[in-house]
Amino acid sequence: MALKTYKLGELIEPSDERNSEGKYGIDDVRGISTGKEFIETKANMDGVGLASYKVVKKYEFAYVSDTSRRGDKISLAYNKNCPEFLVSSISTVFRVKQPKILLSDYLFIYFNRPEFDRFSRFNSWGSARETFSWADLCDIDITLPNKATQQKYVDIYESMVANQKAYEKGLDDLKLTCDAYIEELRRKTKCEKIGDYITFYNEKNVDEKITLEQGVNIKKEFITPQRENSSLASRKIVRTGQIVYCTQLNNENVAVALREGPDCVVSPVYDVVEVIRPKEIMVEYLLLWMQRSEFGRFVYWASKGTSYEFLSPENLQNYKIPIPDISVQRSIADIYKVYTERKRINEQLKQQIKDICPILIKGSLEE
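RE: above sequence
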């Protein structure tokens, strides 16, 4: 099969349509993630004028040229199926101008590879902020198979995405069931302070017998800390079956998790809690409430401090939740456990799709 190499700039063109007539509103604004997706914007949009925002039409791409502080990834996404929406004026919007040579879907697979992230990061330039400019993007040499071969590998990619989306829809339905159950509990069951059911566990690793150090991220998962510590004597011990959370405020994203693996140690910035009345409240049920967004809002409101804000043990003890019969708790906790496990599998599926992108591009060039 004959291959041909082009400058990417020969095949794409910028799009600079603005929201000058106010056709689109705040609900139409999107952010661009390093996961190569359009997402709900995290920016504070109060009082922000949208006239300068750029319109992203179907089959158009958008990316943020600033690659600093993004974990060696570039924020880029492709509008495959959605209606038109807006992105910030600092974003670059573009489209394929030679569809007989390059399929937009194939180009997205090309972008959705770690090789492209590394290339864009390596070729970013600047002092205070490093950027991967439009000129840099256009200067890429891209080798392409014929259109039919591109379509063949696009079809493989899209079949995998369709399977993942079908799985994700079932996941959303399960979450709705769980949320509805919880809301019904809130209406029918008296709320009580969790301080009556827990105790704070402050055991230090003074003899350094435990060598496994962990942290917790805002995805509610235990992780390996980015920096190793030479001494773990001052670290707090987390025993199996205990809940650990970061006391330092991080907007409304609370890093909290239940320890189900072997005992570990965590930084003193974490607090460790243990259920002391397990016949009346399940630790899994308590965790469910501490992982909800409303708990994040409570933490945001209750945290105090100057340079940094922290959630005190006293304030956590004052948090109220409905505490039904233990059998009801078990039913809800079981549903939630299935949901979290399926959510984990869904994330694995999405990662597998991303991992296969380099294989698809390589396969299309070698066929």
